[in-house]
Each structure stands twice: as structure tokens, then as C-alpha cells.
């Protein structure tokens, strides 16, 4: 057995940042797909010994070179499998003589992906810092797993749309096919279900009779409400629709991935693709597929790593009270559920730490049903969110079999709630979760309100004046000034969510949002007055200004300046301040999707400074 700690230290690593896969613990939950495969006897992944994290994100997976048996194809397969996670950029083969570094990637063999560390060879101790800070040989055209899934998902749903399949039905059909594929790739699909089709699991959606029977099994075993679909709908589908669904179920021959790469469903292994990757792809699909609704409702997908950073920071703040395992979390603009999934996993980790044992199926259900809530105006997004939560429940379950014990309650309305929105798929003019439809039972009900609310402007939503009055009334109550105004310039949508979060979060609870950075810098259209009111009513504790990083892989497809706001749900005391940090452009680092947040060198800004100079 290779002593990873010793080798890492020789190359400038900190053993405290090493997570070993043979020591189970809550910090390994983000790697549950890998640890589960190793426990099940996967011969390739037996050589994968751990992961080294850099600033709380995976930097390189560690392979025990003595367990590769001199087989270069085994290394190439490991490299492909960890690439399906979409996180760490490097793989390190560790032997008693040192480390050999490879780029992680979906295509090509390992020998072609070897990273030269010749510049650092004069002093081994700078190798890992060199990888972490500069990301050498990170290809500009790297094929990202989230991009691959987005293209395949878009293609499947677009093909069904061209066949006149209604959007809601298409989402349910594709979601059910993906759910079955997820179970099949993780070898937990019962033989009796595979036998529904003569050709096994890959043919379960090849025809109406097999698809109806498979869907009936899903309804009976799990809960059909999460992706509603009737037998009549399936029987009405044209022949070509089953071809589309059949492609999703196609797996590699004998479960062995080919080393050559093609962008096809059968090149993927959903045993190793984290649910968060799917959720991120769903959100991107929604913004591409419904651009007018995206413009009106203002939703932007959230990169998984940003959701993870925000959840981690918010729970660190909650941790000072010692009750994180009991926290209730709300995302009032949940989309496809990226924040809900991340918070769910964090809550499971916190429960594990508190109880001293890994949460079982019953405990996972308690967390899902009692501690997570998501609102949204978009029915398609909520269907994707439900699918993601079901898949995450299975991913985190140490003993997911027999599947019969995994039957879920309907997540509507206690976990997921739709507020407003049209019923015909047209862009909505409703206030959604900003409106009065959200009941008083949600007032002060959550320890953490978190998310990425819509950033749209001038959407001319109905009942906007009532929302403005509600916010002004709240501002007057919190600030204690009957004359204070809290305008919402140009009817922006993200700012009202911050105000409403003050009602939903309990006193001294945490609020964390990804916002358009106009709240920080815009001068006209009454924004200085709006900023003044916000910082007078809310104890902001930290802001990450991401303005420089738009149009980078840190947040792909976003051209607007953005920021991350962290706050405690209380009126700031005299002299209260917050940390303000502005990550800068760092070419190769940002190109790899990473960024540097140097909290130690953050500027301290007081709320009074903001109010005195709101411009």
C-alpha cells in the first residue's frame, strides 16, 4: 500500500487536504459514486485511493500505481471514469518513487494526457501548488461532462418536440428513461424488471408495451407523481419516440466503456456521474429551450461549484450555533434543484457528524421530507428538481436495495411547491414565490434561505405595486424609520428575493444569494437608495464580487456581472461590517473553471459606509 501522505508532502501537499477512500466519513459524500463502486468490487477503481482537495475543491485523484498491474488501459479507464464527475482536472499515479500527473479527460488515452512538471522538478515541493494555482496544460477545448449531457439531453427533448410530444410529457419520458438508466448503471435494477424486454434493460423503452410495463413498475416501486405520465400517453407516442428513448437506455457492451470517444449515450456511465451534474445540465437546457421564459422569468443556471461554495459557507456560519444537522433550508427560486441537491448532501453529512453513524434510508427520508423546501414558478424545472432529489436519495443511501424500500412520498407540496406560472407553457406574468400566495407558515420557518433568484428587469409582472409596498413596509419595520423607502429599480427580480428572504429566514438565520452585481455598483434608477435600504435592514457578512470573471469557465454563458451575498437575518448593529473580496482574472485557473477567493486579504466594509456613500 502506497503511503500517499508521505508522497504528497514531498510534492508540496498538505496531508490534511487528502481524503482517503478506504476511511469512510461524511467528508466523502461528494464522492459517494466512487466509494460505492470500490466497495462493490470494481477492479479498476480498486486502485483509486483518494482525492486531494485544493481550497475545498478536488484537484487530483490519487491512483496506487502498484495496483495497476502495468495495464495502461486500466489507467485510461480510470481517467475516463473520474472525468465523468466533472470536477478534478488531474489524476496522479503514485508509486514509491514519486508521482506522475495526467490530465483528466473523456477522450484519448492516458499516455497522451501526461502533464509535464519539468519546470517544478528542481524542487518537488512546488509541484502541487503549481498545479493548484496555475493549472498547467489544461486544454482550452476540454470536453466537459455537463456540456456533453446538455447536448444529449437537448437533442433527445428536441427530437420529441419535433414529434409533437408535449413538453411536460417529453420531460417525464426522458426523466423516467434516465431514472432507469441510473439504476441499471449502478446494478440495482432487478432482474425481473430487466426481463420485461427480451433484450434486457437497454430495451425497456424500445416499444409501447415495455415502456408501459416499466413505467408501471416505477410508479409502484417509487412514486409516479414525481414525473407524471399515463399509459395512454405512452401508447399514443409515434414509433420514432421510442427510438429516442431507447438511445438513452443504451449502455456500453457488458458495461465496459470503449476507450475511443463518441458523444453518445452509450459512452456514459451513470454509476459515476453525480446527480448534481444532471441537475446543472437540466437548468442549462431550460434556459436554452425556453429563451422567452428565461428572459421574462430571468432564471440562470448555477454552476455546481458555486452552489457548493455557497452552501458550504452558509453552513459554516450556521455551525457556530451547533445545530446544523437540524437546519431547514429553502431555495425560493429552485430551478432544477442545484442548491437543493447540494444542501441535501450537506445536511446528510451534518447528520452523520452529529449521530456518529452514516444516515440510513429512514434518516435520509426524514431529511428530505422535513428539512428541504424549494419554490419555483416553472413546472418543468420542478419536475427536474424532483427527479434529482430522488436520484440523490439513492446515491447517498449506503444500502439502496431492495428497491421496494425506496418508495417515496409525493414531494408536492411539502418539499417542492409551484407558485404562479402559466398552465399552457407561456411566459408567466405572475409574481410567483414573491407574491402573497406563499403562506404565513413559511414566515421565519427556515435556518437558511439560499439560491440564485432571477435577474430579469422590466418584466412588468402583475401586482408589482403590492410587492413594492410589502418591501417598503418591511424596510420601515426593520430600520425603524417611517420615512425610509426601499425602491426596486427597473423592477429587477433578484433584489425582492433578498427582502422576502428576510421574512422566510428565522431571526439570525442565514441568507445567501447569487445576484446581479448591479446591487453593488449601479448608480442610476434609484439603485443607491435601494442599496441604502438593503444594507440598513440586513446584516451583510460577506460579498464576493465576481464581476471580472463573467464570460469565463467560472460561470459559463454569463455575460452579466455577478456577486455572491452572505448575510445574517438581523438588523446590523452600529459598526457592523462585512468582508468584500474581488477575485481577479487568472487565465489558466479560470479556464479550468476554478477561481481564487482570498478571504484573508478581503477588504472590511461597514454597513454604515455603504449607507453614507450609497453611490
TrEMBL record:
UniProt-listed Enzyme Commission number(s): 2.1.1.72
SUPFAM superfamilies found in the cross-reference section: S-adenosyl-L-methionine-dependent methyltransferases
Reactions performed catalytically: a 2'-deoxyadenosine in DNA + S-adenosyl-L-methionine = an N(6)-methyl-2'-deoxyadenosine in DNA + S-adenosyl-L-homocysteine + H(+)
Keyword terms, alphabetized: Methyltransferase, Restriction system, Transferase
DNA methylase adenine-specific domain boundaries: 277-545
Any one GO biological process: methylation
Gene3D superfamilies: Vaccinia Virus protein VP39 (3.40.50.150)
Family membership: Belongs to the N(4)/N(6)-methyltransferase family.
Xref: PANTHER family: DNA METHYLTRANSFERASE A, DNA METHYLTRANSFERASE YEEA-RELATED
The name this protein goes by in its record: site-specific DNA-methyltransferase (adenine-specific)
